[in-house]
């Protein structure tokens, strides 16, 4: 018998369910608006992947849009066919890496200091987005909302009786009703809408592979696989979730999503840390979170642009900020090791500041780690001393 229930549906799981919304929702909205994706298909498939993952893992292992792909889609306003082709191609790539054992080999050779650097760098990136793009988005009323939300989280973080995300979300809903929402427009858009079937062509796959999948794969290996596995080990030492399982679910999601007009998805260390920080301890939080997207897609996609205003950006920014802090805190276990801390910070800076920084940080950090421990470096150091 497991030491913890696989699925629990209570107030703490409900609070934890919103621990990653600050990352996911803006990316989904951005792709729907910039690239003309079908809102119902996007939201329903994203929700279905969440529910399936929560039930499969029995842990707060949420699903996220593939960030590099999402950023490129929004920035370049690429056609949806390219996105769906990229999703299918990266699903095949990850499945090949998993079944051949290459993924497990990569995880074995990447040192812990590098993983901590990836986690810290991702945390820095998320904190930058939260502070610059979200918290400052609504002028004075938004600043007040963000400030009150921040105080609520500080006061109630870790409180199992009054989980903070529930209070913050409630505050955001009240703010949205007062300043943002047109309830009449939302009501007029209510109706059942199902995902669209999509046919992926060979041209979509090859174009998506070159334009989106290759820039994404390094981030996926570092964050979706390596950092997620380590974060699971940090938070749930007895869970025993291996790289192979993570690689399989990553692959299957992206082999299914494109045929139903769903965006490519992955797992992520940040989402896991966010769900845990706000109270989640089982897969129940992910099931609840996914059910929210299913409901939005199935019944409210006709008024999508109005409905999503129920989650104001300043509030999402505060949630994202605490998600980022939870990720950066993992560096504490190597803080006393000078060489490891140096490597971790080097990797973090590369991840945050450089184009393709995750692959550069991963490769450079691993190289520095093994070089620093080589006999040749030891001899050089001895002579210099």
Which secondary structure elements does this structure contain, and how are they paired or packed?
Elements: H1 11-16, H2 21-35, H3 39-57, E1 64-65, H4 67-76, H5 80-99, H6 102-109, H7 112-134, H8 139-156, H9 164-179, H10 183-188, H11 202-235, H12 243-256, E2 265-266, H13 269-277, H14 284-299, H15 304-307, H16 313-328, H17 338-353, H18 357-372, H19 375-384
Antiparallel strand pairs: 1-2
Task: Briefly summarize what is shown.
The chain has 385 residues and is mostly helical. Helix content is 72%, strand content 1%.
What would your notes on this structure say?
The protein is mainly α. It has one domain (11-333). 72% of the residues lie in helices and 1% in strands. The chain has a two-stranded antiparallel ribbon with strand order 1-2. α2 crosses α16. The model has no long low-confidence stretch (mean pLDDT 89).
Broad structural category? mainly alpha
Q: What is the average per-residue confidence, as pLDDT, rounded to a whole number?
A: 89
**Straight-line distance between termini:** 56 Å
> Which sheet architecture does the biggest sheet show?
2 strands, antiparallel
Helix and strand run: HHHEHHHHHHHHHEHHHHHHH
Strand content: under 5%
Number of discrete domains: 1
- Count helical runs: 19
Radius of gyration: 21 Å
Low-confidence stretches: none
Query: What would the principal axes of the Cα set say about the shape?
Result: globular
Total count of strands:
2
Query: Biggest sheet: strands side by side, in what order?
Result: 1-2
Q: What share of the residues lie within helices?
A: over 70%
């Amino acid at each position: 018998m497991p030491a913890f229930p696989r699925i629990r549906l209570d107030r703490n799981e409900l609070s934890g369910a919103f621990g990653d919304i600050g990352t996911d929702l803006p990316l989904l909205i951005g792709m729907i608006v910039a690239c003309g994706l079908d809102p119902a298909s996007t939201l329903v498939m994203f929700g279905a992947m969440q529910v399936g993952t929560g039930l499969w893992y029995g842990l707060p292992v949420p699903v996220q849009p593939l960030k590099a792909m999402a950023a490129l889609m929004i920035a370049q306003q690429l056609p949806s066919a390219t996105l769906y082709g990229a999703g299918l191609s990266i699903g095949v790539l990850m499945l090949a890496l998993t079944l051949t054992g290459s993924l497990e080999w990569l995880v074995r050779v990447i040192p812990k200091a590098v993983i901590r650097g990836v986690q810290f760098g991702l945390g820095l990136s998320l904190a930058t987005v939260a502070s610059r793009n979200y918290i400052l988005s609504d002028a004075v009323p938004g600043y007040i909302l963000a400030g009150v939300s921040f105080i609520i989280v500080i006061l109630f973080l870790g409180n199992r009786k009054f989980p903070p995300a529930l209070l913050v979300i409630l505050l955001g809903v009240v703010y949205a009703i007062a300043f943002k929402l047109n309830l009449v427009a939302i009501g007029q858009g209510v109706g059942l809408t199902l995902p669209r079937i999509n046919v992926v062509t060979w041209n979509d796959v090859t174009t998506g592979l070159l334009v989106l999948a290759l820039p994404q794969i390094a981030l996926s290996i570092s964050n979706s696989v390596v950092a997620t596995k380590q974060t699971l080990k940090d938070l749930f030492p007895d869970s025993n979730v291996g790289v192979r399982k993570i690689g399989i679910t990553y692959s299957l999601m992206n082999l299914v999503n494109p045929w139903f007009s769903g965006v490519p998805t992955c797992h992520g260390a940040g989402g896991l840390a966010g769900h845990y920080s706000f109270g989640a301890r089982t897969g129940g939080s992910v099931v609840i979170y996914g059910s929210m997207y299913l409901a939005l897609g199935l019944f409210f996609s006709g008024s999508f642009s109005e409905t999503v205003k129920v989650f104001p950006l300043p509030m999402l920014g505060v949630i994202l900020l605490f998600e980022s802090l939870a990720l950066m805190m993992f560096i504490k276990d190597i803080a006393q090791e000078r060489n490891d801390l140096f490597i971790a910070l080097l990797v973090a800076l590369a991840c945050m500041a450089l184009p393709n920084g995750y692959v550069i940080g991963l490769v450079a950090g691993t190289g520095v780690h093994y070089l620093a421990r080589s006999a040749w470096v030891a001899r050089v150091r001895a002579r210099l001393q």
